[in-house]
Amino acid sequence: MSTNIEKKVVNIGDLQIGGDKKIIIAGPCSIESRDHIIDEAVELKKIGVDILRGGAFKPRTSPYDFQGLGFEAVNYLKEAKDKTGLIIATEVLSESDVDKMKDLIDIFQIGSRNMYNYALLKKVARTGKPIILKRGFSATLNEWEMAGKYIELEGNSNIIFCERGIRTFERETRNTLDLAGAYLLKKKTSYPVIVDPSHGTGRRDLIEPLVRASLAMGLDGIMVEVHKCPDNAKSDAKQTIDYETYKKISEYVGKFNENRA
């Protein structure tokens, strides 16, 4: 394995992902209303966040679970950006939605279920926008890397790999967060690799220690789910943290960056 691959950095305005600073992506799993995402954007901006995330289209295992507000939520997210100046990211599920979303958001997210949707990867890649590519929950490292190649071969190198846990026999956690795999992929490709301990564990009590572990390993940032009242969140309540816990994480990341400066 080569160790001399040129380090790749994704630039979004003044923000560098994959540079010296570790970044934080945070926000609710699902955007529940206009007031919800705007209020959360304002609070997270106060506490400290680099990118605001919020789900508009939610592919849920059960069709009876909350599926998101669709394009209504995308517009609310854009309104939150206009109010706070935050960079925004959200997941796209369908090729037909890409062109309608590209002028509203800053970063496309490809979720775990769509990592193998190569037609969608190509379509999103051609927008030139940065792309968060989440690892499929049953994907090998090679399959994850090759999904990135579908984007790269369309001329888009603004790729941010996101380790979000893989499915194993373990039942104490929702998934098994593969930090070793994330580290190996970063060494192999030199693209930014971030970690999502929310989906990676399904347990809010594990998020803070895994944030620390991810940064200690040299990975490029973290993505966490945050809600004012986590137990009342319409999706992923058990893995969502409150503002107080998020503040501790944000302060830790800030001090980590200061110590490296």
Helical proportion? 25-40%
Helix-strand pattern: EEEHEHEHEHEHEHEHHEH
Q: What is the CATH homologous superfamily assignment?
A: Aldolase class I
Helix and strand composition category: alpha/beta
- Number of separate strands: 10
What are the segments in which pLDDT stays under 50 over at least 5 consecutive residues?
Answer: none
CA radius of gyration: 17 Å
Give the number of domains: 1
How far the N terminus sits from the C terminus, by CA atoms, comes to: 29 Å
Largest sheet: 8 strands, parallel, barrel
Lateral arrangement of strands in the main beta sheet: 3-4-5-6-7-8-9-10
CATH class: Alpha Beta
Inertia-based shape: globular
Protein name: 3-deoxy-7-phosphoheptulonate synthase
InterPro entries: Aldolase_TIM, Class-I_DAHP_synthase, DAHP1/KDSA, DAHP_syn_2
Keywords: Transferase
GO molecular function: 3-deoxy-7-phosphoheptulonate synthase activity; aldehyde-lyase activity
Notes on the protein architecture:
With 261 residues, this protein is an alpha/beta fold. The protein has one domain (17-260): Alpha-Beta Barrel (TIM Barrel), CATH 3.20.20.70. 38% of the residues lie in helices and 15% in strands. The chain is built from nine helices and ten strands. The strands form two sheets. The protein has an eight-stranded parallel β-barrel, surrounded by seven helices. Strands 1-2 form a two-stranded antiparallel sheet. Helix 2 links the parallel strand 4 (51-53) and strand 5. Helix 1 packs parallel to helix 2, helix 4 crosses helix 5 (141-152) and helix 8 packs parallel to helix 9 (243-260). It is globular and about 45 Å long. The model has no long low-confidence stretch (mean pLDDT 95). Keywords: Transferase. InterPro entries: Aldolase_TIM, Class-I_DAHP_synthase, DAHP1/KDSA, DAHP_syn_2.
